Amino acid sequence: MKKTETIKLGFISGLSGVYSWSAQNQLQGVILATQEMNKNGGIDGRQIEIIIRDDETKPELAAKLTRKLIQEDKADFIIGGLSADTQLWINKETRAAGKIFMSLGQSNDLTKAQNLGPYTFHHALTPYMTVQGTGKWVFENLGKDWFIIVADYAWGQAVQKDYENLSKRMGARCVGVAKTPFPLKGKEDIMKHVPEILRKKPEVLIGANYGAEQLIFMEVANKMGLKRKMSIVNTLSEINVIERVPPEEAVGMYWGVSFYWGLADILPAAKKFVSAYQRRFGQVPSSYSAYGYSGACEIFYAIRKLGTYPIDAAAVSRELEGRTFSHYKTPEWWRPCDHQAFQDHYILKLKGTEERKNKNDISEIIGTTSWELDFERTCEDLGHKKNTWGHIDPPPPSYAN
Known about the structure:
Largest sheet: 7 strands, mixed
Shape: globular
Low-confidence stretches: none
CATH superfamily of the largest domain: Response regulator
Strand order of the largest sheet: 7-6-8-9-10-14-15
Structural class: alpha/beta
Order of helices and strands: EHEHEHEEHEHEHHEHEHHEHHHEEEEE
Strand content: 15-25%
Distance between the termini: 40 Å
Mean pLDDT: 94
Number of helices: 13
Helix content: 25-40%
CATH topology of the largest domain: Rossmann fold
CATH architecture of the largest domain: 3-Layer(aba) Sandwich
């Protein structure tokens, strides 16, 4: 029998901010997962209702709207977050309220012991993990002398630090770093660094920027002839960013990502997800679409298995800690100590006009970094020595013995 009371999912992200493309993708992934669950009867007869809030990528607004979702809208749990800063503010509110927060954006700080709540889960790769995936492949395949263009805010700063540490461990050389203001005022913010880049003669020019700023970076690299002198690598990108680059400018550049729709050709889970997403939205999904879909599916899974309402956040957390899951690619794992999703990372090379079979065929997957425990900082590094096997007592059954 269908119950009239709904389960309320609070979604919050920068839907109109500097990274609005990716936030919209997050939301579409959550919508797809929700519609699939509702079509199959919901959870224990209850339909899932999505309450949407736009934080405009402004930290204080993110905190205010999260409080509203919890206190006024009575959201049962929160999904979203994109920028490294807004995630921390959202998490502060959900942690204080004892609510589940499934974070979908990159952050090196969210999973640290001083920030992570017992009901906080981080689905996206951390900047540290992204740099391991991209940097190791670059070192092995493109060159050992790197120059890094960094967007000067939390995410870019974290990426810079991780590249510098990785280069020391691997024996690469970071020959230069150029910081650009966030957000960029214009092309000149990048162009003024070109003389130094040419003077340092790196084998690889690495961009630690995203969205519209990444497009400017790629345009400058082409117009100033940098692509003819060195390899150009975007640490992290998305199809809805890269597709805006003219093929003749894009060809030969590289980018790192946690998911690409082309995985549908080799992975059954990816084929199922990509097909469903295309039918619903008329476009291929990005990795942020996948994070939204998979993050929602994980919470739905735990709530459905527990079969209780109101939702018991501690029980949901206990159910997910240490769980292996696969909703859209190769299997992932929730590490108990920091609730971080361990997952594979991919390197893509951009195609030219002649190589593209259709409008979505912009890249080929040329490298995979399969996750291992050293793909992320240790539990001890993050301050979780007391919570190695999880944050909820007793530990999950698989770790009880």
